[in-house]
């Protein structure tokens, strides 16, 4: 895993002529947060980095062990923008699934991923990557509020006929989210 000291050395050796070049706030925060995150992940989550030197792009896999999506393996891409921590990470679900808060195209409705949220639970500079991971994980366990769903058809099916909803979820898990 990359460390801040190593990152600083790389930065200074790459820019001896440019002594004003410094590690970005994002990089500084990511080194600390990723180390903390790797120690405090929910048991149903796993993160991986395509390039261990690039902490701003990684993959999250959630494998729920209970609920409607149990037995599935759901992959998310997470990109942390340069404006982090003033702006939230960009998250996309790469696994096709049937969920009221995740569109079939992979867009996600989760308050803490919004810069401005009407419920007051949106992104704030005090939030961290672990909040995002735990929030995404909760989408598979906490079916409490579908007042503002992204997938309206799934939300309506859930409220009208939970058995049909569960059958469709199982169909999607079997087709797209096998472990």
UniProtKB/TrEMBL annotation:
Leader sequence residues: none
Domain of life: Eukaryota
CDD domains named in the record: UBCc_UBE2F_UBE2M
Ranges for domain UBC core: 25-178
Keywords: ATP-binding, Nucleotide-binding, Transferase, Ubl conjugation pathway
Swiss-Prot/TrEMBL catalytic activity: [E1 NEDD8-activating enzyme]-S-[NEDD8 protein]-yl-L-cysteine + [E2 NEDD8-conjugating enzyme]-L-cysteine = [E1 NEDD8-activating enzyme]-L-cysteine + [E2 NEDD8-conjugating enzyme]-S-[NEDD8-protein]-yl-L-cysteine
Pfam families, per the entry: UQ_con
EC number: 2.3.2.34
UniProt pathway: Protein modification; protein neddylation
GO MF entries: ATP binding; NEDD8 conjugating enzyme activity
Annotated InterPro entries: Ub_conjugating_enzyme, UBC, UBQ-conjugating_AS, UBQ-conjugating_enzyme/RWD
Biological processes per GO annotation: protein neddylation
Residue numbers annotated as active site: 109
Protein family (similarity comment): Belongs to the ubiquitin-conjugating enzyme family.
Protein name per the record: E2 NEDD8-conjugating enzyme
Organism: Aedes aegypti
Species lineage: Eukaryota, Metazoa, Ecdysozoa, Arthropoda, Hexapoda
């Amino acid at each position: 895993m990359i460390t801040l000291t190593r990152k600083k050395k790389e930065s200074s050796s790459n820019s001896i002529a440019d002594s004003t070049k410094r590690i970005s706030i994002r990089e500084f925060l990511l080194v600390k947060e990723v180390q903390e995150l790797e120690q405090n992940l929910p048991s149903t989550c796993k993160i991986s980095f395509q390039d261990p030197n690039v902490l701003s792009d990684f993959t999250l896999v959630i494998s729920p062990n209970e609920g409607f999506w149990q037995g599935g393996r759901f992959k998310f891409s997470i990109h942390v923008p340069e404006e982090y921590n003033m702006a939230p990470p960009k998250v996309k679900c790469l696994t096709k699934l049937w969920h009221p808060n995740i569109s079939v195209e992979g867009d996600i409705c989760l308050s803490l991923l919004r810069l401005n949220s009407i419920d007051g639970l949106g992104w704030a500079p005090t939030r961290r990557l672990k909040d995002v991971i735990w929030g995404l994980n909760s989408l598979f366990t906490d079916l409490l509020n579908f007042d503002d769903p992204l997938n309206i058809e799934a939300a309506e099916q859930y409220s009208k006929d939970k058995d049909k909803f569960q059958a469709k979820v199982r169909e999607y898990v079997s087709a797209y989210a096998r472990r």
